[in-house]
Amino acid sequence: xxxxxxxxxSLTIATCLAAAWPALAQPPAAPAAPAAxxxxxxxxTVRKMTDALEAALKAGDVRARAEILSGPMKETFDLPAMxxxxxxxxxxxxxxxxxxxxxxxFGPYLSATYATRLGAAAGSSFAIDPKSEARGAGRxxxxxxxxxxxxxxxxxxxxxxxxxxxxxxxxxxVSEAGTLRTGFSEPLQEGGADGLLAHLKKSTETMLAAPAxxxx
Length: 216
What we know:
The chain is of the alpha+beta class. It has 6 helices and 6 strands. It has helices spanning 4-16, 41-56, 62-76, 79-87, 96-118, 176-208; strands spanning 125-128, 133-135, 138-146, 152-159, 165-170, 174-175. Strands 1, 2, 3, 4, 5 and 6 form a 6-stranded antiparallel sheet that branches. Helix 1 crosses helix 2 (41-56), helix 1 crosses helix 5 and helix 3 (62-76) crosses helix 5 (96-118). The chain starts with a helix and ends in an 8-residue tail after the last helix. The relative contact order is 0.20. Pfam families: MlaC (PF05494). Residues 1-25 form the signal peptide. InterPro entries: MlaC/ttg2D, TAT_signal, Tgt2/MlaC_sf.
């Protein structure tokens, strides 16, 4: 059973993941007052992802939640960049064709991971700061996650110059990229790129096959 901290950490990573939502259309000549953060593309990216997370929280099982999250995560996350960070220095030694296979498998893996974590996050909500902050060539968007009991946790989304998420931090210290690197270390050591690819596919299948919780 997950602790409250683990649940909030799960939401991080699960949120973590948002790049510019295409619905940021140009306003008409006489627009209504814009929503907070609407003019900030980094905030819009994160808002798109948190909207998907909130929708996924209402789904009944892991597979349904993963289907809801899959599209928004592809749009909002820089999945190739996150995978490179997760693999680390070994990435440059992996042939280009195998890198493409790994990237294709990583998207479903990450969606299934977040969908699994959301299973313990019923009642959670997300409050986004209306303005992002500069970090190098990219931006940081601050989000406060409130769980069902009212406890809060700060989550920082790191976005690149294209306003796509490349990392997520909980409490300013727990990095999603670092979590991936830890999880990928053993399959890479034991089987190299092929070992990691098998790990991604098997883990995804296992997570998606989890039964829906029984009604109380």
